[in-house]
């Protein structure tokens, strides 16, 4: 019997069996529809898209290796969580953990500002920051919350130390980039890092206890930075 999944109007069903090109096409349409959706509190439909979130949280989607599929899926998941905010739409803590970790890992695409989909990665980052989506991790079991926070720290450090950002900073410093290009990229990098730091700070404040695993990540990147 087919699964009863609620989609926004004019959105096509998204089966696990779809090829990546079709997945990207359908997820893009879905993402654009969800981006325009009011919150469930505003619409008066508290359970709207709950079945859609559970469907998209399946491992067949979260484990897809295509970067294009990942960014459009992450945007869809983030907007569904925005629609439900401040409520938690998933009853299974492990499923919520997996969704949050997937979304955070997808942010690694921010390390490449030349990526044609960079604006989507930045939209995802702004969405998570404005809605404070990652604070949902605070209500997870401590070990799951730690996993989300460690992933956020690791991903943020990788983005901040991304080779493409560093090469563009160097180009700006040695004069090989135009002044306007250098200023624009520097401003984008500052915005990205500022939003990431804001999310990290909020999550660190809200968790009951900062675990040794989280401190290990901080020490690894901050006290003994990686040299390339």
From TrEMBL:
Identification of the protein by name: Uncharacterized protein
GO cellular component, one term: chromatin
Entry keyword set: Nucleus
Pfam families from the UniProt entry: PDS5 (PF20168)
The keyword Nucleus is assigned to this record: yes
GO biological process: DNA repair; mitotic sister chromatid cohesion
InterPro entries according to UniProt: Pds5 (IPR039776)
Sequence segments annotated as region (Disordered): 163-186
Annotated localization: Nucleus
């Amino acid at each position: 019997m087919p699964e009863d999944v609620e989609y926004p109007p004019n959105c096509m069903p998204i089966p696990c069996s779809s090829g990546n090109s079709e997945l990207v096409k359908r997820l893009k349409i879905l993402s654009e529809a969800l981006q325009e959706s009011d919150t469930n509190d505003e619409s008066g439909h508290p359970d709207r898209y709950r079945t859609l979130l559970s469907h998209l949280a399946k491992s067949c989607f979260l484990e897809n290796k295509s970067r294009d599929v990942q960014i459009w899926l992450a945007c869809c998941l983030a907007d569904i969580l925005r629609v439900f905010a401040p409520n938690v739409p998933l009853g299974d803590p492990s499923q919520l953990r997996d969704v949050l970790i997937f979304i955070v890992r997808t942010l690694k695409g921010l390390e490449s500002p030349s990526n044609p989909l960079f604006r989507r990665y930045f939209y995802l980052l702004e969405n998570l920051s404005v809605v404070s989506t990652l604070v949902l991790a605070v209500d997870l079991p401590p070990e799951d919350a730690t996993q989300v926070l460690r992933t956020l720290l690791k991903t943020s450090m990788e983005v901040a130390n991304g080779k493409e950002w560093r090469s563009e900073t160097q180009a700006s410093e040695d004069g090989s980039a135009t002044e306007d290009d250098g200023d624009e990229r520097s401003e984008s990098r500052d915005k990205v890092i500022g939003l990431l730091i804001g999310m990290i700070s909020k999550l660190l404040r809200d968790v009951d206890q900062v675990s040794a695993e989280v401190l290990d990540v901080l020490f690894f990147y901050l006290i003994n930075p990686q040299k390339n």
